[in-house]
# Entry
Amino acid sequence: MQWTDVCSVSDLQENSGVCALVNGLQVAIFYLPADEHGVYAIGNYDPIGKANVLSRGIIGDIKGHKVVASPLYKQHFDLQTGTCLEDEWVTVPVYACQIEGGRVQVDTRLIAPLRQLIETSTNAQQEGVSA
# Structure
């Protein structure tokens, strides 16, 4: 990983998002202290509303998916995969992030395509076994 230090955890609001400029990219960072991951990072640009607003969305859980609802047209984006729940063909970038020594760090290399590839492969294997 290529971690970039972004901010202190104390700069974040619990169960809310902020926007940070990381390596020239607007990244929406969501702080969920009760969650096992603690922080999530996705692209801030809403491809449906065509504006940088996702950091201002409301965080929720839909059928086990941690999501943010766009403040514009209310589509829900999965914080782990970047997939829009209402239209799976629409996605936003997902970035690795972590809390290390009280600091939030982000790696702006995309990880959602890798996660999706792993999930697709795992699902295909499971379907093959049960068939």
